[in-house]
Amino acid sequence: MNSNLRLSKILVASACFAMWSGIGGPAVLAANSLKTEVHLRTSLQAEISVSGIVTDETGMALPGATVRVKGTTIGTVTDIDGKFTLDVEESSILQVSYVGYILQEIPVGGQSTFEVQLLPDATQLDELVVIGYGTQKRSDVTGAIGSVKTEDFNKGVISNPVDLLQGKVAGVNITSTSGEPGANQNVIIRGIGSLRSGTQPLYVLDGFLLDNSSTGIASNPLNFLNPNDIESIDVLKDASATALYGSRASNGVIVITTKKGKSGTTQINFSASTAWSSMAKKIDVFSADEFREQVVAAGGALEDFGGNTDWQDELTQVGFSQDYSLSMSGAKTGDFSYFASIGYQDQEGILKNSELKRYSGKLNMNQKAFNGRLTIDYNLTASHTQNLRPSITSTISDMLSLNPTVPAYTDGEPTLLNTNALNPIKRYELYSDDAANNRILATISPSFEIFDGLTYKLNLGVDYSSTNRYQQYKPYSGVINESNISDGTLDEGISSNTNQLVENTLTYNWNNYLHNFTVLAGHSYQTFLDEYRGISYRGFADNNIDPIYQDHNSTSEFPTTVSSSAIRNELQSFFGRVNYTYADKYLFTATFRADGSSKFGQNNKYGYFPSFALGWNVTKEDFMSNSFFNNLKVRASWGQTGNQEIPSKITKASYSEDRLSNGGGSLNTYPIDTDGTTLDSYPYGIVFTRLANPDLQWEVSTQVDFGVDFALLDYRLTGTLDYFNKVSSNILLEVVPADPVQPTSTYWDNIENMKIHNSGIELGLDYNSREGQAFSYNIGGNVTFIQNEVKDSPYSVLTTGAAQGAGQTGATINGYINNQPIGAFYMLEFDGITEDGVNRFKDINGDGEVLDNDRSVVGSAIPKVIYGFHTNFNYKGFDLGLNFNGTAGSKIYNHTAMSLFTKAQLSRSNNTTDFAVQYPEESFNNSNTVSTRFLESGSFFRLNNATLGYNLNTDAMGWGEAFQNIRLSVTGQNLFVISDYTGFDPEVNTGSTSGGIQTFGIDRFTYPRARTFSINLNLTF
């Protein structure tokens, strides 16, 4: 120390001499001398060698933890055993950190060995988010990703995993097609970007890319998953997050992660629930007395059978459901973990003969070897699903239109209707649609760390599904005007789907404390084989034996028909991603994927999909040290994704046999004998049914995203705000040739210049009260404002929804129209009833007459606003959770009202609502033309589910050694809906497609939604 002081004095004296010599002024002298002295004292301090071990909250070693000297770039990472060694000065402070854990600061002092135990970090910044082919700390994410964990899922009777998300993620609109158990759903992420592929995103289950093809069962293909097995669901929304999945990511990606074994004690979970469901809303058709009055008042011919029947009550039931799940999980010293479960769900619908049963099994295992360098993940999901369905369209039509004066039963048997038509109660006995699906999905993923930072991973998987579906009518001679019922029919469908995946990836991580660099490169090869065989039989003995169990011989009167198909597709991909982080402040992500699909022609088989993203953790900057923001990150991304969800083989030529079928037919073949006058002179010939098009290109979606993530009030208030703009181009469509002289009536092409625009703003907020208090709460919500538009379309209208039924079939309801929103309703504007009792429509173009060119856009099926919010309250052992969701700005076309609720129906003694008699002057002969008369608001606000629960104090009860937790709860689903819509429910879509283009916002004889209550028990031991 004396030598240091002497040296310092000499330097100060030299500085004084320099000052007096004019080299520097007094201020420079003081600053330079002080800096020099401090530097010398620091550099001359003694260094010591320190070592230690870093563990997690359970005492397990944490390899790869960062140990850094605070304020410097000096540091290291722990080895495979969690140990480290570092040379530091005695006055140093060590910072120890690990992803997902709270950073610890430890003064060195004179200590040379350390045992550091890190605790999990509950903040959202350090939670791991599942991204393409890996995970990432949320604070490092540059893309737009919404995540929902198991504790935040929607509660109640859930058969489809997508129901867990409804109302939870901004920018995601989930609409059930009907209230049937396990019904299909439209999932729209940031708008509709394609004509043909519908709305379905790509689903990734534990790293396996699922295929959205139908499995032959009428319900949703995702119903094979047990929701109790799911740990988290991540929704990848922007191109930066989805581009690594390339060709199937234009509609977004939903990544489902199932539960794994966790460190700690072995855990067993058992859950049981029972539920009952009833029709949430009845349509206000006339009662028997009202019906008698209205038919007479309208001038109709009343058929009064003396009864008083509410057919909605007769044809519905209280559906009972039960759900049981047992799981076991655990881990051993970090080398082995497992999760295993079995489940059973039986969900009855509110229509009779409507039921969904699922038997499921799940096994996830993880094994490490070679000191942790080799890791093998094994995932197995198996299920058996049975789906029983009634004749939905016929049943709904009957319950709303049958004469209420007809007694439901006569002498204990269903009354035979006066037209010899089938009583729908009897239909329940005669008709069944029964499908059984067996599905198994297995993956094995070994990974090996070749050297520190470089890991190779192989992902092998197969998804196999097999379905037998039988639709039958037992023969019933009591009905003579419906021959398929009197004779009996059986339609048998056998489907099998095989999806095989092989992926190889290399991942390299490099970290020198300021720079964090991760590179991913991979290759993927996936094959799909879908096979189907259908057989139709007719004419069975009326012997009280189901047709499925009867022998059947094909006859000339009732020939057996057979149809079959097999479709094979292949997809090969090369992909890569670079993630770079500097000082945890500046983030960069770049991805690229090249996809080759067998669906495209030789000239454009591959599509190329890049993306780039930047992020800035603003709160890491020094100037933000005193900011009221706990977290502030800005993001920006640009990228492209593709779409290959088009029919197979459309780029290849196809042929069929044809010949002149009768004298008035078209001449597809020519006679051998030019003087021939009979069919024998016209042999079978080969004709084109599809032309080859090797130049067909991929559809491409280009998306720009700007986002801000923030946290305030000690992380109690968190939120995210995003602006997105998505443009789809190279639109694929089956079109009619401009030249009428063509060998085929249609062909496939990319529509030049046509684009589909989707843009909007997403906002999500979440507030948590302070922890550690007897009463706590959480309030959160999200809202999305979205605009969509079709640009530069060469077509006046591409029909997506068309009317069905006698005198209605084919009439356009909605479609894609240039410079208009997606799903635009295109029809005449209703303007009342004329003096002659017929419809009056507005003359839009003012030419003095109403024609097709007076049709106009009168709204869209796609909402302009999507929102959801939730509240959770906790007091001691009690908790209450409420989840709401809704939409605004959409329309629904009430096809049911157009088909049934007319004065013409009433005049024939069929039941209706007061909609049919709102115009007393209306004629019985007035047509039910597609118009705004049947167009209604689709906006709604729903209490989706509410759960009241209580966690028993097992220690106080003396059960602490046997049970970790006992929870009782009650849940209500679809408790109320506020809406102006007059149908069963505003969240609906049962319209038919037109030319393979998906429709939206049409309600035609929809299966009603249920209101459900359940009692639930959860045990952990």
What does this structure look like?
The chain is mostly beta strands. Helices cover 9% and strands 47% of the residues. It has a 22-stranded antiparallel β-barrel. It is globular. The two termini are 64 Å apart. Mean pLDDT is 85; it is low at 1-44.
Specify the structural class.
Answer: mainly beta
Tell me the fraction of residues in β-strands, as a range. Answer: over 45%
**Number of beta-strand segments:** 53
Percent of residues in helical segments? Answer: under 10%
Largest sheet: 22 strands, antiparallel, barrel
Give me the number of helical elements. 10
Oligomer: single chain
What is the CA-based Rg, rounded?
34 Å
Instruction: Determine the mean pLDDT.
Output: 85
- Mass-distribution shape: globular
Task: List segments where confidence is low: pLDDT < 50 over at least 5 consecutive residues.
Answer: 1-44
Straight-line N-to-C gap: 64 Å
Describe this structure in a few short sentences.
This protein is mostly beta strands and 1021 residues long. 9% of the residues lie in helices and 47% in strands. The strands form 12 sheets. It has a 22-stranded antiparallel barrel.
What key phrases describe this protein's structure?
1021 residues, 22-stranded antiparallel barrel, five-stranded mixed β-sheet, 10 helices
